[in-house]
Design brief:
The chain is an alpha/beta fold. It contains 20 helices and 15 strands. The strands form four sheets. It has a seven-stranded mixed beta sheet with strand order 2-10-9-8-7-3-6, sandwiched between helices.
């Protein structure tokens, strides 16, 4: 750009800045005055300043041509109103999950059963006996609300709950192996999501990692050969988010338990997903009760995966190990809040009736849904879309689909499902999906071969009509 052009642009920018409305000028507009009556003044004033600052930057940077009318006070008010609405609207929104992934991590994993929801509302709206005994009137532990039911369900001597499963593993290692060595099979050094890896967590515990065996084959003799006088624990990690198949070998849990007991160390068994229900789909998952019965000192698992509850890390096992975890300083930093206690307590009590739990825990009900049920739901959705969107029936069809458990669980298990496949006018399925994501409520679905695919595996019956209305609105 020449010097002449530079000065012309600068001069134009200065003129535009002089024409930009001031804060007080915008606030004197009738529509802005109405905002001040409805909303807190600091919020409205902050929105006005943000809009003016944004225009000022655009003028100075010359990123786009700013028309004179865009600088007027009356023109700025709608932008201010939009910012105020965003500022005062809770960011976390309910969405409709038409992806066919039951425990979708990015969508919040498990949907809580109604009993847990009601328990959370009671705990949130009232004082509770979180750490106060109603019998003695003395201080108690928040763990007391979960301790007995976990022992009953798992057969363990003791139980402790922290804020997620990675925290449970970290605490178990810190309490039992800090300053010593932990033996782990090389094939179990997994990444658990968002870039976090078991070796990283292990190092933060203050223990030293010793890799044993090979990626696909590890024998008990490998653990025996790696053992030193600094070995404090053996960690077994269930590869819940992938599988190594084919030419594989690993010691049984009984063998590892015997070895660690014989040599005065501890065995930590990280099950990851932690399936309690007896669904056929879970047959390949390690049994919680079997891990406890085999003699694992601490068995850890998640609350919000196949268990179907709130985010939590649950540790059950031998009393001495769980007590060491409870007394460790990290336990305070990793403790759960009263809302998680309430939700998990209500969920676990549903498992006292195993058959009832499959019906009442949404995660289990979705994973156990039969093909007739899914077909009927998909047909209701198709019929509603055809009616509300006035779409040709041939453009909206029910098709076979494949769902997933999600949340890193059951990685090789395909879940037969049903979906509504929608031909998009103009063939621009990605644009329709974008409008659905930005709708009310937001809808997450898939695009497949230029068609919109609405999988009904994780769509509740009560959401079918709402989902159809969202699709019809996005098609307009």
């Amino acid at each position: 750009m020449s010097e002449t052009q530079d000065s012309t642009t600068a001069g134009g920018g200065a003129a535009q800045l002089r024409g930009l409305a001031a804060v007080d000028e915008v606030l004197r507009q009738p529509a802005a005055a109405a905002l001040l009556e409805r909303y807190p003044r600091p919020v409205v004033v902050g929105a006005v300043r943000a809009v003016i600052d944004r225009l000022r930057r655009e003028i100075l940077e010359g990123g786009r041509e700013v028309a004179p009318q865009e600088l007027e006070a009356a023109t700025l008010v709608p932008w201010v109103e939009a910012l105020v609405h965003i500022a005062l609207t809770p960011s976390l929104q309910r969405v409709v999950n038409a992806l066919g992934v039951v425990g979708h991590t990015n969508l919040g994993r498990a949907v809580l059963p109604q009993e847990s929801v009601e328990a959370v509302v009671r705990a949130a709206a009232n004082y509770t006996d979180l750490e106060m005994s109603v019998v003695s009137g003395e201080r108690s532990s928040r763990q007391d609300h979960l301790h007995d039911v976990l022992r009953t369900l798992t057969g363990a001597e003791d139980a402790l709950v922290v804020n997620n499963n990675a925290a449970a593993v970290l605490l178990a290692l810190a309490a039992t192996a800090r300053g010593g060595e932990v033996l782990v099979s090389r094939g179990q050094l997994v990444e658990i999501g968002d870039g976090f890896r078991i070796p990283d967590i292990l190092r933060e515990s203050g223990a030293e990692l010793v890799e044993v065996g090979t990626t696909n084959r590890t024998y008990l003799r490998d653990f025996e050969a790696a053992w030193t006088d600094r070995t404090r624990a053996v960690l077994r990690v269930h590869t819940s988010n992938y599988r190594i198949v084919g030419f594989t070998t690993e010691p049984t849990l009984d063998e590892l338990a015997h070895l660690t007991y014989e040599r005065g160390a501890v065995l930590i068994d990280d099950l990851g997903s932690g399936a309690l229900a007896g669904l056929p789909l879970f047959s390949a998952e390690p049994s919680l009760r079997d891990s406890v019965a085999a003699g694992a000192d601490a068995v850890t698992f998640s609350g919000d995966k196949l268990l179907g509850g709130p985010q939590a890390g649950i540790a059950v096992g031998r009393a001495a190990t769980i007590e060491a975890m409870r007394r460790h300083p990290l336990a305070r930093a990793l403790r759960i809040d009263k809302l998680t206690v309430a939700a998990l307590d209500a969920l676990l009590r549903l498992y006292l009736d195993p058959q009832g739990a499959v019906r009442r825990v949404p995660t289990l009900a979705m994973l156990a849904a039969g093909q007739d049920e899914l077909q009927a739901r998909a047909e209701r959705l198709r019929d509603a879309i055809v009616k509300l969107a006035t779409a040709p029936a041939d453009d909206v069809v029910v098709v076979a689909s494949v769902g997933r458990a999600g949340a890193g669980a059951l990685p090789v298990s395909d879940l037969p499902s049903r979906a509504v496949s929608l031909a998009v006018p103009g063939g621009d399925a990605p644009s329709l999906l974008a409008r659905l994501c930005g709708g009310e409520p937001p809808v997450f679905a898939r695009v497949q071969e230029d068609r919109l695919l609405l999988d009904v595996l994780a769509v509740r019956d009560a959401e079918v009509q709402e989902l159809a209305a969202a699709v019809a609105a996005a098609l307009v």
